[in-house]
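Trying the structure run again after the queue cleared.
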Amino acid sequence: MLRIFGHFVPIPAIVIGLCEILLISAAIYLATAPDNPALAGEFHFTASSIRFSLGMSAVATGVMGAVGLYNYDVFLDSRLMMTKALLALAMVVPAAAIGGLFFTSNMLGGIADSWHALAFKSAAAWMGCVVVTRMALLRFSDVEMFRRGVVVLGTGVRAARIADLARRRANHYFVPRAYVHIGADPHLVASESLDLDAIKDSRALAKFARTLGVREVVVATDERRGMPIEQLLHCKIEGVNVVDYLTFWERENGRIDIDALQPSWLIYSDGFRQGRIVNLAKRAFDLTVSFMLLAAALPVIALTALAIRLESPGSVLYRQERVGYHNRTFMLYKFRSMRTDAERDGAPRWATNGDPRITRVGAIIRRFRIDELPQLWNVFKGNMSFVGPRPERPFFVEQLAEQIAFYDERHSVKPGITGWAQVNYSYGASLEDARQKLAYDLYYVKNRTLFLDIVILIQTVRVILFREGAR
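Done. Tokens:
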């Protein structure tokens, strides 16, 4: 993993993304060359073509990220890869057509080609590059060239969680080469014969790691007493990285292990970037994105309001009290997706799969997240951000805060229309779901930057297109 602006990004995705940007740019540049050789040497053609090819490459790569073509599980599943590639193609073609309309006259002088031919050539060049790169990925997907070997210090509960994560092949970029028992840890995973409790050589662990070709030791002991400090110190001195379990878990999963979380780790670890400049940049980003989305979604908003009004009596909009920044309550706006008597007994309830309270129009707008669009007004008012933890109702917040440690920490940033938990976890409707989502929310609170916000926005497209998480 490589940390970019506080967010952990898989190195394979970075490498593949950069290679595809260069390859797609070159392919589009060559594919859109004019038929008339006399035009090829002119500077204005070269400059316009470079801008067009780089712009199309950036758009195509963003679309590929949005549909999930850079997720590791897609690398190993040819059917899923093809499905998402075709979906990406359906989004790239219109973008190429729009680009062709603006660039044709500058690039070709209106002589050699038309905008639709330019769009076709661009899309075909992109698809050819995708086929080449993805076939290469499938060919070498079983080679562990991108997986990092680690030695896990510990054989207890935390080490067992790492072992379980490693067995889920599609979700990790590391390989545990060995587990080393230490102290009072139970033997929940098979360990090596290396006995650090009795061995005299203070460099034994570093030598063992080098023998295995490993450059990282993960400290995953359940008890801190009896830690082999000298062994770990020599690992660090000799160039073997030493990382604690919580940092390792955060890096590899994009979430925080709530069960193992200690306040001291939150205090001493990196993150929690706040400040006037950061908040102003975040506010400017929220207003810009919300305004652009509102302008683009006005026809959808009008049709949705009309459909709700025609289907059932009652208000088109639904107002509900939610808990926001620093535990302050505010009124959240949504399109009404349930019957007006959904909570006639006055008892708040989570939505469930196949909830009978949801109307026919409501089922559609919830599936595609259209019901969230009125929350753009909450963003303009400053109650919400575009990206952040989803706000909950006071009734549920009170219950969850009593039963889940660190739950109130998610209110240290403004709530959002979409969030890191929403793009990584399905809709939550239970205490355990709330715990799992909090693990992602705390990751966002700790590592939030505009870069992570952009990543979440791109991933939100995937969630909407594949109908993940909606109820």
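The first strand starts at residue 2 and ends at 4. Worth checking whether this holds up in the mutant runs.
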